[in-house]
Automatic annotation (TrEMBL), chains A, B:
Native source species: Gigaspora rosea
Full protein name: Chaperonin 10-like protein
PROSITE patterns, per database record: ADH_ZINC
Pfam families xref list: ADH_N, ADH_zinc_N
Family per similarity comment: Belongs to the zinc-containing alcohol dehydrogenase family.
């Protein structure tokens, strides 16, 4: 079969490789219909994630059809249309039982082999899914292949980022409703100001999610005009990172306080720095971008004096899907708008270059055979 | 009147100064019965808090009797027995309305004058309390002077630290109860492991608070034996920082995972480092110690890979008192156990030395005339 494989930093190669086989009785082989190219694939591509084996099949976003099934796989059959979270999970360990499926004790990231250990990715014609019963999710009627693909990572990750921000702010809002009569009539999030830093796929999904969850006032910051336009279509007020002064603008809107919640969806030092500066005292910094910085742009003293709430980490997609599937079925947003490029697996090398360099107004690339 | 005044780093001086007068019609003058010496007074004492004016009256913990009252003060009268949060608040601003009274737009810390701006502290015979109606709280029957003094800061701060940790963990527990039948019968916090780093007054109060809030399994770490003994009396299992290996011990207890919640009640780089290492993935790090470190001992990448929830900041005492007054009235703990030294204001200089150097098994000093 064809597969996009990692060779060395900044070099992937489309290769013909053997079709994966069932290795354990809990495995499923999925025939891939659509796979995605995700921002975190670029961490691998750039060599930030050290030690990925040469010839690892790339990609952790894929949906398709169950093609072959281990003898001990439950609730799935050949022909089922399924999507996969970007990491698999057992559904039974300490973390899975607490909804933190992304920290499953047996979980592995797709497209991440180190010293022979790990599992291949989905940028291929077929992919082996271990722990399939507790990992794969059947795709309900009314969800397209492309939208199902977005559920594998970016849509759930954006939702998780927004939900975390809102959960952390909840005690302040209940206090307000309890002690201020005029707020008892209002909707929960009528008066909060949310800022999204970064309008890549995850940032855009976090905008849609925040609005779906009831946020009325949301600003989005990026330096790429076409991304700001999609953010606007999703309901955010765009702020250009360079042409405008985001901090001044947000302070102006909030009587000098800063945002109640900042959703940081980039994952580098400067985006985290900007996010912290945009945040009001006792606000919530929900940071979802995988961040390889070796330091924080703020210190514990800054955090103390801001009464900081900081929440970060890998999205537990399998758990979040119980909320994002109804979200998608609500048909409130055309999520596929972010898919700017449908390409063939055979164009893999070119696709990585386009996405990495943000050429041709690229927001999101998906692969179809 | 007598007052303990700041002169320069590591030098306070007991002086005779004028009795404060009403300056605004919302002021109250409190005749102090008991004032406290708090760990954060040591930040001032050591000169960590730069720019405190010479002759500032020290201290932000005090309780006493309303002695004089401004013309516009409501709900208080001369003779009322009152306690004060360590900072005052207006009760009306954006932050006060959200329960973040410690970030009140008009709030000031007691015992903190910089370039003539600010308010004097409570280590004196009298203290002026601006915004008195929304700051001072009448002390109910059945709460002693010493216990009331502990409510001004350390007891509320410890409670805030514990409550934050438990609030952040709540979604995981509700998920567990929803999806695992055997957990539906259990109490909410039956199975969680909490670790308190630092058994100073705030750490000890956070132990009592966590237990009051339902925690069954709690470990406390310190290097001072007599503090570990009080922690044990409050219901924690003590771990000696030096003689034992806290990280190994907690990993052992939690099948190698780490603690669900770490309550960090010291406020320096090494305590924060230990706290992070003690924490399991997707655990909560509730850090209450005022921390002057200029860097975090972990980085955003570490935080991401641990799905870190980090919460810190100054306790909103005025709001927390609505919960800690019933807590105190429950009589479940003898909080005064932490008061190892009752001294006279005239012994101020000696008291700071004893407390700073932890001489004579000192945990907490209070002053009475």
């Amino acid at each position: 079969m064809q597969a996009i494989t990692f060779q060395q930093p900044y070099k992937v190669l489309v290769k013909t490789v053997p079709i994966p086989k069932i290795l354990q009785d809990t495995d499923v082989i999925v025939k891939v219909c659509v796979s995605g190219l995700c921002g975190s694939d670029l961490h691998v591509y750039r060599g930030d994630e050290v030690g990925i084996d040469k010839d690892t099949i790339m990609g952790h976003e894929f949906m398709g059809i169950v093609n072959e099934i281990g003898s001990n796989v439950k609730d799935l059959k050949v022909g089922d249309r399924v999507l996969s979270p970007f990491s698999n999970c057992c559904g039974e360990c300490f973390y899975c039982c607490r909804g933190i499926t992304s920290r499953c004790e047996k979980g592995q990231l797709f497209g991440c082999l180190k010293n022979g250990y790990g599992i291949h990715g989905g940028q291929a014609e077929y992919v082996r899914v271990p722990l399939a019963s507790s990992t794969l999710v059947k795709i309900p009627e009314g969800i397209s292949d492309n939208t199902a693909l977005l559920l594998c990572d970016v849509l759930c990750t954006g939702y998780f980022c927004a939900e975390n921000g809102l959960n952390e702010l909840a005690p302040q809002i209940s206090y307000l409703k309890q002690y201020k009569l005029e707020y008892q009539k209002k909707d929960e999030y009528d008066d909060i100001v949310v800022v999204v830093v970064g309008c890549g796929p995850v940032g855009l999904m976090s905008i849609a999610s925040a609005i779906y969850l009831g946020v009325k006032t949301i600003y989005s910051i990026d330096s790429i005009q076409e991304r700001l336009e999609i953010a606007k279509e999703f309901g955010a007020t765009p702020i250009h990172l360079i042409d405008e002064n985001p901090i001044e603008k947000i302070k102006e809107i909030t009587n000098g306080r800063g945002a109640d919640i900042v959703l940081e969806a980039v994952g580098n030092l400067s985006s985290l720095d900007l996010s912290f500066k945009l945040l009001r005292p006792a606000g919530v910094l929900s940071s979802i971008g995988l961040n390889h910085s070796n330091t924080f742009p703020f210190n514990p003293n800054d955090g103390y004096h801001k009464n900081l709430k900081y929440i970060s980490g890998r999205c537990p997609v399998r758990q979040i899907l119980t909320k994002t599937i109804p979200f998608v079925l609500s048909k409130k947003f055309n999520f596929e708008k972010i898919i700017t490029h449908e390409m063939k697996l055979s164009d893999g090398e070119k696709a990585y270059e386009i996405f990495e360099k943000k050429l041709d107004k690229c927001v999101k690339v998906v692969f179809k055979k």
